[in-house]
Structures are given as C-alpha cells and as structure tokens.
Design brief:
The protein is an alpha+beta fold and 198 residues long. The chain contains five helices and eight strands, in the order H-E-E-E-H-E-H-E-E-H-E-E-H.
Length: 198
C-alpha cells in the first residue's frame, strides 16, 4: 500500500496531466491524523510534483516547518478537516469547465439526469437533482473558509466563483473519483449550454 505522500503526489501528477491545474494553480492535501495534514507547497507545478514539494501543516493552518510556505488556501483545507472527521483528502483544481460554470449569477449549480451523479458518494440515483454550492471568491481566505464552515455543502465538493472546484473524500482515491465525477458533469453541462444556448 502506498504511503500518503506518494499517493498525494500521484494524484497531483494525474490532475496536472489533465490540465486541471495550469500555471502552478490548485492545491492538494491529505489528512495525517486529527491534528495535521500533508499539503502542497505554494507555487509548485502539479504535473511535476515530488514528495519534496509537500509539507506538514497543523489543522489550524500553521506550517510545522516555518521555512516552508503552504498554499495560500490552506485554511480551506483545514476548515474542511475540522468540520468533518471523515474527510481524509481535499483536492482543489482550476479547470476551465469548473471555473467557467462557477461564474453563474446563482449561488448553486443544479445537475440532474446524469448517471455520473452516482460517482459522488452521497448520490444513489440519476433521477434526483443535486445542488453544487458556489461561494463568492474572496482574497481573505479566512473569511471564505468561515462561509464554507457555516454552509457546509451536502455534496462532496463546491465551487468558488471564477476560481474552481474543491472536492474531497474519505481518502485520496475517493477524492480523486469525486474530482473526475464533477469534471465529467461540468463538461456535460457546458456541452448542453453550447447545444441549447441556455
């Protein structure tokens, strides 16, 4: 069984290879225990990430090694870990589809009728309409994290307007599946908009 560091690097490389985190964007983490997580350092190319580009943070967002700089959005990761002890990994991507769809004026994205909805653990059927929360972007990450904590989504992910997708799971494999599921659904919605003009 892979250790958490190598598994996190592997998923980062997979997401980077898909072009979902261009220009060193995105950030990724895995829970180590009830007090710490392993997270990507700021400014690293996710398609070429190595274990040396990871660092340990406490769940209050402080770097264990003060010489290293964590992602600017670490507080969102640690807020999710503190809010739900079942969350074992958090992946944040900047794909074109998630970023464009997040720019709607609504505060939710509605998805229904797609079999792929069942890739998201909480959904059992394609018949239901699922709601994906959209939070306004805020350079004050602590304020954005507080909004997320007050309005914890039912789905295993949310969008930040003009920014991208945060998705999570019980472990890295489930979080990756959720990213892939969301991305498929978002691509379908984009194609529908192109076909129907709505």
């Amino acid at each position: 069984m892979k250790n958490k560091a190598s598994a996190l690097v592997e998923v980062c490389n997979f997401i980077g290879a898909h072009g979902w985190c261009p220009a060193t964007g995105g950030n990724f983490s895995v829970r180590l225990d009830n007090d710490q997580c392993l997270i990507t350092q700021s400014g690293k190319d996710k398609s070429r990430l190595s274990e040396n580009d990871l660092m340990v943070c406490s769940l209050d967002g402080k770097a264990v090694d003060s010489r290293l700089r964590p992602s600017a959005e670490t507080a969102l990761h640690t807020t999710l870990y503190r809010s739900d002890r079942n969350i074992g990994a958090v992946l944040h991507i900047h794909s074109v589809t998630s970023t464009v769809l997040s720019r709607t004026d609504a505060d939710k994205l509605f998805v229904s009728g797609f079999e792929m909805q069942k890739a998201l653990t909480v959904n059992k059927t394609h018949d239901e309409t699922i709601e994906i929360a959209i939070f306004d972007n805020d350079q004050n990450i602590a304020a954005l994290a507080a909004k997320v904590e007050r309005n914890m989504p039912d789905q295993p992910g949310f969008l930040v307007r003009g920014h991208g997708l945060y998705a999570w799971g019980r472990d890295i494999d489930e979080a990756r599946r959720h990213v892939e599921g969301f991305e498929f659904l978002f691509a379908c919605l984009m194609q529908e908009k192109l076909l129907t003009g709505k």
